[in-house]
Amino acid sequence: MELVVLNTSGKETGRKVNLDDAIFGIEPNQHAVYLEVKQYLAAQRQGTHKSKERSEITASTKKLKKQKGSGSARYGDIKSPVFKGGGRVFGPKPRDYRFKLNKALKRLAKKSVLSQKMKDNSIKVLENLSFEAPKTKEFINVLNALGLESKKSLFILGEVNKNVYLSSRNLPKASVKNYNEISSYDLINAGEVVFLEDAVEKFQENLRK
User: Fold this and answer.
1) Subunit arrangement (predicted)?
2) Global pTM?
């Protein structure tokens, strides 16, 4: 399949890029997408939660009353979980929530999201941007020309471009990333995906490995 390359004014340049059907035209695998998004979100968790258990409470260890003969339940010390201020039973401990997925599944997830985006006509190809200096106003002009001023958008670069990145940094609905930094979560979170012309083949080559 092919997509027309647009210029920064939103007009067709007459050039086209080829998109691999094995990447942009497959039947989406929703479970693969779910797993990669779950992995991404799990990796964002700090995992620093902690509560004190019985052995970590600072309090008297004296037995509150004799074991038998009181007519009520047996009590230990004041640190027992059944008392206010006592330790917590099976409380949270610091842990790492990250887990691994194999590379083939992660590639399948990205292909699935891109194929769905293609069906929804939510993918565009833009000629390469070159800002002489970081200018948010220039980036906003590009968004307006593409009709993305009110939509969440993800711009995928073929190489690191600091001026383009800095120009978009203050815009809450626009995100700019290099082609090798993209996750399925980034693609899903964006309403529209915009590939810069030189990023298309690099991104596809990355998914063919």
Assistant:
1) Part of the 50S ribosomal subunit.
2) 0.81
Bridge-partner residues for 59, per DSSP? none
Q: How far apart are the first and last CA of the chain?
A: 20
Residues of the chain with CATH 3.40.1370.10: 2-46+102-208
Q: Which CATH number fits domain 2-46+102-208: 3.40.50.720, 3.40.50.300, 3.40.1370.10, 3.30.300.130?
A: 3.40.1370.10
Cα torsion at 19, 17, 200, 175 (round to 10°)? -100
- 124 token code pair: 């565009």
Query: Is residue 108 within 8 Å of residue 32, measured between CB atoms?
Result: yes
- Could you read off the pLDDT of 147-182 as tens digits, one per residue? 998 899 999 999 988 999 999 999 999 999 999 999
What's the rounded Cα separation, in Å, for the pair 189 and 113? 10
Q: What is the pLDDT of residues 28-57, one digit of tens each?
A: 999 999 999 999 999 999 999 999 999 999
